[in-house]
Amino acid sequence: xxxxxxxxxxxxxxxxxxxxxxxxxxxxxxxxxxxxxxxxxxxxxxxxxxxxxxxxxxxxxxxxxxxxxxxxxxxxxxxxxxxxxxxxxxxxxxxxxxxxxxxxxxxxxxxxxxxxxxxxxxx
Length: 123
What we know:
Strand order of the largest sheet: 1-2-3-4-5
Low-confidence stretches: none
Strand content: 15-25%
Radius of gyration: 20 Å
């Protein structure tokens, strides 16, 4: 692609931009929640309609907060946090925590959860 220096601004044709359509919007949370079996995970829906899923051993946690996660006296810093995934570490290896916004598509969260579950194994 050549730049036409005689024209002000950019002279990039639309085809060169390779425009794409991207998945947007929160989607259906059940696409994520349905990945957890009742035999291996505990499901709780609280009085705010937030969903909490944890492994029976307590090392995995997923929280779904459709209206944002509550955070105490100053809740502004977490109002956009819709999903939290955490795995507790061991004495030798630290765990991790991820959070995603309320408008993150459920399909993306489901893919992350599927990968985490695929790497877990019973002891």
